[in-house]
Amino acid sequence: MGIWILNAQTVAAGNELVKRHIFMEGRTIGSIVEADGTLPDTAGHTVIDAAGKLVTPGLIDMHVHLREPGFEHKETIASGTRSAARGGFTTIACMPNTRPVIDTVDTVKYVLDKAETEGIVRVLPYGCITKNELGRELADFDALKQAGAIGFTDDGVGVQSAQMMKDAMAKAASVGLPIIAHCEDNTLVEGAWASEGEFARKHGLKAIPNESEAIHVGRDVLLAEATGVHYHVCHVSTEQSVRLIRHAKQFGINVTAEVCPHHLLLSDEDIPGMDANWKMNPPLRTPKDVQACIEGLLDGTIDILVTDHAPHSEEEKAKGVDLAPFGIVGFETAFPLLYTKFVATGQWTLQFLVNKMTSLPAQVFGLELGTLEPGKEADITIIDLETEKTVNPAEFASKGRNTPFAGWSLKGWPTHTIAGGKLVWSEA
Ligand SMILES: NC(=O)N[C@@H](CC(=O)O)C(=O)O
Ligand SMILES: [Zn+2]
Ligand SMILES: [Zn+2]
To answer: For residue 325, which ligand has an atom nearest its CA?
Structure first.
């Protein structure tokens, strides 16, 4: 028995949609036919009528935190993949800052096994750059790759030593996997949580300067040039980083980059007060930085969109801004936010948004995913572009409720998520 999706509005070009019927059987897409008025024979198959809805390749998120092993009170692979599915994501790449961190074959296998038995979407694990993410000793990249790691990162913390980063890049290049960098120079951020801008000035706070991020970007593109590695910059948030990445790309350096919805939609001037749901790393920057990130995404300097889904418990976030951990959840608001604020307002085409969340992440990371084509993996998301709903964190499938977007009224909510040919989530 297969699944027919009937009357799917698929993206053709720009904002142009084409109506198609899509059939899948087993894990793969069987056929895609133009809807010409006659319905295909669906006898014996599950039918989903997608009339009036957008149908896209399953969304891909290359930067997420699933918290397992070790921080199951924040999220688990079960709850995190449900949250991803509810947000329309069918493939997610998880960060290794768990407890223990993912720096051994056993932890990679643990995550992959859990994902197989308890997860409902595809989980691709990253391995650490350095053992324990301490920046002192390289992890065993050969072994991590063998176990299934798809790249190396110490996300959560920057690699402080240039020599360590250079060694990591040389080794990653030799095993043919990318370095994914959380760019942050610790000597420039000491204890601050807000960025240098209006908010920090008004409240007399110690502030995080843009250079704390951009200095690592500048250092690392030079090291990437020297080593030839594929270097991917995490959660770009500053005008200076965008400029450095643009320049590096012009020089033919193998650099790619990602940006999160919150760094495109919020600046430090939107922070309502001492509220830890507005505390994330990197911090919300100035309106000028937001504009530079949007321009970087538009001109291709920034390749892809990611959520950096970073759940924390309510108790942890209630400790007050100084003590609360950095991070906000992202899966269940990402597409509606970007659709409502950029596509529905006419700034981006639907094709631009969908590509940045499907085919482009697949291309950047060499995954055979992200397109709707016969013979390809049946990963499909169905999205209602019309119904307006309010973001209600109490409804999240994630254990995390930590979002600055509560109460926002949005359109573009996923209604069905199909991963590997299975309907893994549908509305109500
Ligand atoms: N982004 C965050 O604010 N927090 C992330 C770490 C990270 O992505 O650097 C986390 O693990 O909570
Ligand atoms: Zn990070
Ligand atoms: Zn992260």
So the answer is: 1
Cβ contact 141:167 at 8 Å: no
ipTM score of the complex?
Answer: 0.99
Total-model pTM: 0.99
Name residues contacting ligand 1 (CB within 6 A).
65, 97, 155-156, 182, 280-281, 308, 310, 325-327
308 classed as catalytic:
yes
Ligand 1, closest atom to CA 280?
3
Annotated binding site for Zn(2+): 63, 65, 155, 182, 235, 308
Spatial separation of the C-alpha atoms in residues 401 and 315, rounded to whole Å: 11
Domain annotation for the chain: domains and CATH numbers: 3-55+376-426 (2.30.40.10), 59-364 (3.20.20.140)
What is the 8-class DSSP label of residue 9?
Answer: E
**Residues in Cβ contact with 411 at an 8 Å cutoff, skipping those fewer than 6 apart:** 336, 339, 340, 344, 384, 385, 386, 387, 388, 389
Residue nearest (by alpha carbon) to ligand 1 atom 3: 327
pLDDT tens digit sequence for 288-310: 999 999 999 999 999 999 999 99
Ramachandran class of 287: left when φ > 0, alpha when ψ lies in -120 to 50, beta otherwise: alpha
Kindly name the residue from 289, 308, 379, 384 that is annotated as catalytic.
308
- Cα-only R_g, the chain: 21
CA distance 2 to 45: 5
40 by Cβ neighbours in 10 Å (0-12 / 13-18 / 19+) ranks as middle
Judge if the upstream peptide bond of residue 282 is cis by omega within 30 degrees of 0.
yes
Which of these, 225, 300, 231, lies nearest to 259 by C-alpha position? Answer: 300
Is the separation of the CB atoms in 19 and 8 below 8 Å? yes
In the chain, count H helices and then E strands: 13, 19
How many angstroms separate the alpha carbon of residue 310 from the centre of ligand 1? Answer: 6
